[in-house]
Protein backbone atom coordinates (compact mmCIF):
# COMPACT_ATOMS: atom_id res chain seq x y z
CA UNK A 1 0.00 0.00 0.00
CA UNK A 2 1.28 3.44 -0.88
CA UNK A 3 0.62 6.77 0.79
CA UNK A 4 -0.80 9.57 -1.34
CA UNK A 5 -1.90 13.17 -0.91
CA UNK A 6 -4.99 14.68 -2.47
CA UNK A 7 -5.02 18.32 -3.58
CA UNK A 8 -8.46 19.96 -3.68
CA UNK A 9 -10.00 23.42 -3.56
CA UNK A 10 -13.76 22.86 -3.45
CA UNK A 11 -16.51 20.67 -2.05
CA UNK A 12 -14.53 17.45 -1.80
CA UNK A 13 -16.92 14.96 -3.38
CA UNK A 14 -14.04 13.28 -5.22
CA UNK A 15 -11.98 13.11 -2.02
CA UNK A 16 -14.85 11.40 -0.18
CA UNK A 17 -15.33 9.01 -3.08
CA UNK A 18 -11.64 8.07 -3.18
CA UNK A 19 -11.35 7.60 0.59
CA UNK A 20 -14.49 5.47 0.78
CA UNK A 21 -13.78 3.24 -2.24
CA UNK A 22 -13.26 -0.21 -0.73
CA UNK A 23 -11.20 -1.65 -3.60
CA UNK A 24 -8.96 1.40 -3.81
CA UNK A 25 -8.16 0.99 -0.10
CA UNK A 26 -6.16 -2.12 -1.08
CA UNK A 27 -3.73 0.07 -3.02
CA UNK A 28 -3.53 3.51 -1.47
CA UNK A 29 -3.81 5.26 1.84
CA UNK A 30 -4.91 8.89 1.53
CA UNK A 31 -2.79 10.46 4.26
CA UNK A 32 -3.10 14.15 3.50
CA UNK A 33 -5.44 16.70 2.00
CA UNK A 34 -3.73 19.80 0.62
CA UNK A 35 -6.12 22.71 0.18
CA UNK A 36 -5.44 26.24 -1.06
CA UNK A 37 -8.87 27.57 -0.06
CA UNK A 38 -9.31 28.04 3.71
CA UNK A 39 -13.11 28.26 3.23
CA UNK A 40 -13.49 25.08 1.15
CA UNK A 41 -15.95 22.42 2.24
CA UNK A 42 -13.36 19.74 1.45
CA UNK A 43 -11.50 20.64 4.67
CA UNK A 44 -14.46 19.70 6.85
CA UNK A 45 -15.03 16.52 4.85
CA UNK A 46 -11.39 15.48 5.19
CA UNK A 47 -11.51 15.96 8.95
CA UNK A 48 -14.72 13.88 9.15
CA UNK A 49 -12.91 11.11 7.24
CA UNK A 50 -9.85 11.28 9.49
CA UNK A 51 -7.58 12.63 6.76
CA UNK A 52 -4.91 15.07 7.94
CA UNK A 53 -5.23 18.49 6.35
CA UNK A 54 -2.74 21.08 5.19
CA UNK A 55 -4.55 24.33 4.44
CA UNK A 56 -2.71 27.33 3.11
CA UNK A 57 -3.63 30.69 1.68
CA UNK A 58 -1.55 31.51 -1.42
CA UNK A 59 -2.10 35.23 -0.76
CA UNK A 60 0.10 34.93 2.32
CA UNK A 61 3.12 34.17 0.12
CA UNK A 62 4.90 36.80 -1.92
CA UNK A 63 5.70 34.35 -4.74
CA UNK A 64 4.20 31.12 -6.01
CA UNK A 65 7.54 29.35 -5.66
CA UNK A 66 7.48 30.09 -1.91
CA UNK A 67 4.31 28.12 -1.22
CA UNK A 68 5.28 25.43 -3.72
CA UNK A 69 8.57 24.88 -1.84
CA UNK A 70 6.57 24.53 1.37
CA UNK A 71 4.21 22.07 -0.32
CA UNK A 72 7.03 20.00 -1.77
CA UNK A 73 8.51 19.65 1.70
CA UNK A 74 5.15 18.50 3.05
CA UNK A 75 4.47 15.91 0.31
CA UNK A 76 8.01 14.62 -0.28
CA UNK A 77 7.21 11.17 1.15
CA UNK A 78 4.14 10.53 -1.03
CA UNK A 79 4.45 8.45 -4.18
CA UNK A 80 1.51 10.09 -5.96
CA UNK A 81 -0.35 13.37 -5.72
CA UNK A 82 -3.99 13.17 -6.77
CA UNK A 83 -5.67 16.36 -7.90
CA UNK A 84 -9.40 16.42 -7.25
CA UNK A 85 -10.72 19.86 -8.02
CA UNK A 86 -7.48 21.66 -7.23
CA UNK A 87 -7.85 25.02 -8.92
CA UNK A 88 -4.19 26.11 -9.16
CA UNK A 89 -1.82 25.65 -12.05
CA UNK A 90 1.21 23.70 -10.88
CA UNK A 91 4.53 25.24 -11.88
CA UNK A 92 7.34 23.63 -13.84
CA UNK A 93 9.47 23.84 -10.69
CA UNK A 94 6.97 21.71 -8.76
CA UNK A 95 6.48 19.29 -11.67
CA UNK A 96 10.23 18.69 -11.99
CA UNK A 97 10.15 17.30 -8.46
CA UNK A 98 7.10 15.08 -9.08
CA UNK A 99 7.31 14.23 -12.78
CA UNK A 100 4.91 11.47 -13.79
CA UNK A 101 3.46 11.23 -10.29
CA UNK A 102 0.67 13.84 -10.33
CA UNK A 103 -2.73 12.68 -11.59
CA UNK A 104 -5.70 14.95 -12.29
CA UNK A 105 -9.38 14.48 -12.97
CA UNK A 106 -10.94 16.92 -15.44
CA UNK A 107 -14.64 17.23 -16.31
CA UNK A 108 -14.36 17.21 -20.09
CA UNK A 109 -13.21 15.04 -22.94
CA UNK A 110 -9.74 16.49 -23.26
CA UNK A 111 -8.31 18.04 -25.31
CA UNK A 112 -11.70 19.81 -25.41
CA UNK A 113 -12.51 22.44 -22.80
CA UNK A 114 -9.29 22.75 -20.87
CA UNK A 115 -9.40 24.96 -17.80
CA UNK A 116 -12.44 26.12 -15.88
CA UNK A 117 -16.20 25.86 -16.53
CA UNK A 118 -15.70 22.87 -18.80
CA UNK A 119 -19.10 21.28 -18.29
CA UNK A 120 -20.90 24.57 -18.85
CA UNK A 121 -18.92 25.28 -22.02
CA UNK A 122 -19.65 21.83 -23.46
CA UNK A 123 -23.32 22.12 -22.52
CA UNK A 124 -23.70 25.60 -24.01
CA UNK A 125 -21.94 24.41 -27.15
CA UNK A 126 -24.56 21.62 -27.42
CA UNK A 127 -21.92 18.90 -27.62
CA UNK A 128 -23.45 15.51 -28.36
CA UNK A 129 -21.32 13.89 -25.66
CA UNK A 130 -19.85 15.16 -22.41
CA UNK A 131 -17.34 13.26 -20.32
CA UNK A 132 -14.46 13.02 -17.91
CA UNK A 133 -10.70 12.60 -18.36
CA UNK A 134 -8.09 11.25 -15.97
CA UNK A 135 -4.59 12.39 -16.96
CA UNK A 136 -1.06 12.92 -15.78
CA UNK A 137 -0.21 16.55 -15.09
CA UNK A 138 2.46 18.28 -17.16
CA UNK A 139 3.41 21.90 -17.89
CA UNK A 140 0.39 22.47 -20.13
CA UNK A 141 -2.92 23.07 -18.34
CA UNK A 142 -4.97 19.88 -18.75
CA UNK A 143 -2.49 18.71 -21.35
CA UNK A 144 -0.77 15.67 -19.85
CA UNK A 145 -0.93 12.08 -21.01
CA UNK A 146 -4.49 10.75 -20.88
CA UNK A 147 -4.97 7.67 -18.71
CA UNK A 148 -8.71 7.19 -19.19
CA UNK A 149 -11.85 8.85 -20.49
CA UNK A 150 -15.55 8.08 -20.28
CA UNK A 151 -18.57 9.90 -21.63
CA UNK A 152 -22.31 9.93 -22.04
CA UNK A 153 -24.73 11.26 -24.63
CA UNK A 154 -26.28 14.53 -23.46
CA UNK A 155 -30.04 14.80 -23.07
CA UNK A 156 -30.71 18.50 -23.59
CA UNK A 157 -34.09 18.16 -21.92
CA UNK A 158 -32.02 18.11 -18.73
CA UNK A 159 -30.67 21.24 -17.07
CA UNK A 160 -27.00 22.13 -16.79
CA UNK A 161 -27.24 21.23 -13.10
CA UNK A 162 -28.58 17.75 -13.96
CA UNK A 163 -25.81 17.22 -16.51
CA UNK A 164 -23.22 18.40 -13.97
CA UNK A 165 -24.50 15.76 -11.53
CA UNK A 166 -24.18 13.13 -14.27
CA UNK A 167 -20.58 14.20 -14.82
CA UNK A 168 -19.87 13.90 -11.08
CA UNK A 169 -21.29 10.34 -11.04
CA UNK A 170 -19.00 9.50 -13.94
CA UNK A 171 -16.03 11.05 -12.11
CA UNK A 172 -16.78 9.02 -8.99
CA UNK A 173 -16.62 5.79 -10.99
CA UNK A 174 -13.77 6.61 -13.38
CA UNK A 175 -11.20 8.10 -10.97
CA UNK A 176 -10.91 5.18 -8.54
CA UNK A 177 -11.13 2.59 -11.32
CA UNK A 178 -8.34 4.30 -13.26
CA UNK A 179 -6.15 4.51 -10.17
CA UNK A 180 -6.75 0.84 -9.37
CA UNK A 181 -5.78 -0.14 -12.92
CA UNK A 182 -2.63 2.01 -12.82
CA UNK A 183 -1.56 0.62 -9.44
CA UNK A 184 -2.25 -2.99 -10.45
CA UNK A 185 0.19 -2.57 -13.33
CA UNK A 186 2.85 -1.33 -10.88
CA UNK A 187 2.52 -4.37 -8.59
TrEMBL record:
Keywords: Purine biosynthesis, Transferase. Its EC number is 2.1.2.2. InterPro entries: Formyl_transf_N, Formyl_transf_N_sf, GART, GART_AS. The active site is at 106 (proton donor). It comes from the Bacteria. It catalyses: N(1)-(5-phospho-beta-D-ribosyl)glycinamide + (6R)-10-formyltetrahydrofolate = N(2)-formyl-N(1)-(5-phospho-beta-D-ribosyl)glycinamide + (6S)-5,6,7,8-tetrahydrofolate + H(+). One of its GO terms (biological process) is 'de novo' IMP biosynthetic process. Signal peptide: none annotated. The record marks 142 as: Raises pKa of active site His. (6R)-10-formyltetrahydrofolate binds at residues 63, 104. Residues 4-179 form the Formyl transferase N-terminal domain. GO terms for cellular component: cytosol. It is an enzyme of class 2 (transferase). GO terms for molecular function: phosphoribosylglycinamide formyltransferase activity. Pathway: Purine metabolism; IMP biosynthesis via de novo pathway; N(2)-formyl-N(1)-(5-phospho-D-ribosyl)glycinamide from N(1)-(5-phospho-D-ribosyl)glycinamide (10-formyl THF route): step 1/1. N(1)-(5-phospho-beta-D-ribosyl)glycinamide binds at residues 12-14. Belongs to the GART family. Catalyzes the transfer of a formyl group from 10-formyltetrahydrofolate to 5-phospho-ribosyl-glycinamide (GAR), producing 5-phospho-ribosyl-N-formylglycinamide (FGAR) and tetrahydrofolate. This is Phosphoribosylglycinamide formyltransferase. The gene is purN.
Amino acid sequence: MIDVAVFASGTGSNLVNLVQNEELKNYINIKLLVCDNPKAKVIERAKELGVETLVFNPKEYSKKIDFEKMLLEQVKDFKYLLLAGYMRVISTYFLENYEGKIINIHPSLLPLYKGINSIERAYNNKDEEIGVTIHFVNEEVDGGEILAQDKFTVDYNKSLEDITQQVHKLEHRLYPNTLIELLRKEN
